[in-house]
Amino acid sequence: MRKANGTMPVSQVAAAAHATVRTLERNFKQSSGYTVKDVSGLIRFERVRNQLWLNPDSNLASLAHELGYTDQSHLSREFKRYSGTTPAAFARKARKEKPIASNDFVAFVQS
């Protein structure tokens, strides 16, 4: 899933695991507490967050297309779901804070 940047369909993950979609979802949720779709969304969120941190002037519509979202509003909804803020607000904050931050950017997401 990471190699596909979070855009791999659940059916392909199930096929790679030699399981049905239902079995994969049930076992994945039971062992990790998350669904495959949740992890896929988190992988994509991390890519968007990192891109916006490094380049806060990125065009959100282009970024959405590049990273496998259906459209900009889809990116915005998922970003807010994982971070509690919109991508535009995050980018504004990144513009202001970037000079004082190091390259070792780490974020923890709590749900």
Plain-language structure description:
The chain has 111 residues and is an all-alpha fold. The protein has one domain (10-100): Arc Repressor Mutant, subunit A. It has six helices and no strands. The radius of gyration is 15 Å and the shape is elongated. 16% of the residues are buried.
What are the salient characteristics of this protein?
single chain, 111 residues, mainly alpha, Arc Repressor Mutant, subunit A, 6 helices, 61% helix
Give a quick rundown of the structure.
It is built from 6 helices and no strands. With 111 residues, the chain is mostly helical. The mean pLDDT is 85.
Intertermini distance: 21 Å
CATH class: Mainly Alpha
Named at the architecture level, the CATH assignment is Orthogonal Bundle
CATH topology: Arc Repressor Mutant, subunit A
Work out the radius of gyration.
15 Å
Number of domains: 1
> Mean pLDDT score, rounded?
85
Shape: elongated
- How many helices? The count is 6
Largest sheet: none
Percent strand: under 5%
